[in-house]
Amino acid sequence: MSLKKSFLIAGIMIMCVMNPVGIMATDENGRQSGKTEVTMIIFPLSVREKVKPDEYYVRVKIRAKGESEKEVIGLLGRVDEVVRKSRIEYSGGEFDVRKNCWWEKGRKKCERFIGAIGYEFYGEGFGFQKKIIHALTELKEKAGKRMKFLVEKVG
């Protein structure tokens, strides 16, 4: 992702120190010829650089579980439909569905099905992040315990 640099002047601190300094002037022979007053002026400047990204992103992983493979694919399909309708630029969308299996006392046990789908969304500002999180939250409320999502990375 390319970054555009924007400069922000944090503060320009101008300090004018009007401080007379006595300097003894000498003539060609090195003799002191008199005193001259000199005024010193100091201008210290302070600049702060702020880097602002051209694009923001959020990475989201959605997990679903159900009694059948068809049910899990249906849930993940609804997620994909919500993402497409949001009209937010994204990458990803690959999903996998499998039996929920584990080993217990030397025997393989399987119960129900699980699936996952992941996306990375891109946009200017933070508005798109709120929009996609809101849409996924609404879908989660409808699906209940059968679905959950995790925001993995924000930038």
Short description:
It is built from two helices and eight strands. With 155 residues, it is an alpha+beta fold. The protein has a four-stranded antiparallel beta sheet with strand order 6-7-5-8, covered by helices on one side. It has a two-stranded antiparallel sheet with strand order 1-4. Strands 2-3 form a two-stranded antiparallel sheet.
Task: Give descriptors for this structure.
155 residues, Alpha-Beta Plaits, 2 helices, 8 strands, elongated, disordered N terminus
Written description of the protein model:
- With 155 residues, this protein is of the alpha+beta class.
- The protein folds into two domains: 3-52, no CATH class; 56-154, 2-Layer Sandwich (Alpha-Beta Plaits).
- It is 23% helix and 55% strand.
- The chain has two helices and eight strands; from the N terminus they run E-E-E-E-E-H-E-E-H-E.
- It has helices at 69-86, 127-143, and strands at 3-11, 19-26, 32-40, 46-53, 56-66, 89-104, 107-123, 147-154.
- The strands form three sheets. The chain has a four-stranded antiparallel beta sheet with strand order 6-7-5-8, with helices on one face. Strands 1-4 form a two-stranded antiparallel ribbon. Strands 2-3 form a two-stranded antiparallel sheet.
- A hairpin with a 5-residue loop joins strand 2 (19-26) and strand 3.
- Helix 1 packs antiparallel against helix 2.
- It is elongated.
CATH architecture of the largest domain: 2-Layer Sandwich
CATH superfamily of the largest domain: ACT domain
Low-pLDDT windows of residues: 1-21
Order of helices and strands: EEEEEHEEHE
Could you give a short account of the major beta sheet? Answer: 4 strands, antiparallel
| Category from helices, strands and their pairing | alpha+beta
C-alpha Rg, in Å? 33 Å
The helical percent reads 10-25%
**What's the number of helices?**
2
- Which CATH class of the largest domain? Alpha Beta
